User: Which sequence fits this backbone?
């Protein structure tokens, strides 16, 4: 029996949420699915979303135990081999990001 990895579970969750945002995008209420995801995260109190590397470059560290939230990356093409046959697939990778509520500046800690 095949188990689903955490990233696959997150991908399914984000796909479901994105389906609900698709109609808003089609009506022009939002410019992109990521814009809709960011609005959902904003309503949950997360306004500044950055990758791990971006927070690190800004001098912050991720708080212990924090879990990433996800946005869609740019469409990617990849060649895979299945049953001895090569084929090209396209997909949108997930980009893990963290909010201002999940980080701290170690130099400002008392």
Assistant:
């Amino acid at each position: 029996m095949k188990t689903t990895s955490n990233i696959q579970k997150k991908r399914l969750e984000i796909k479901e949420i994105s389906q609900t945002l698709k109609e808003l995008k089609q009506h022009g209420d939002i410019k992109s699915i990521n814009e809709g995801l960011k609005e959902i995260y904003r309503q949950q109190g997360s306004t500044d979303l950055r990758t791990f590397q971006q927070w690190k470059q800004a001098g912050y560290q991720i708080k212990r135990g924090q879990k990433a939230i996800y946005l869609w990356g740019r469409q990617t093409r990849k060649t895979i081999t299945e049953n001895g046959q090569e084929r090209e697939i396209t997909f949108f990778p997930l980009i893990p990001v963290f909010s201002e509520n999940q980080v701290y500046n170690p130099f400002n800690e008392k």
Q: What stands out?
A: The helical segments are 6-26, 33-43, 52-57. The CA atoms of residues 22 and 28 lie 10 Å apart.
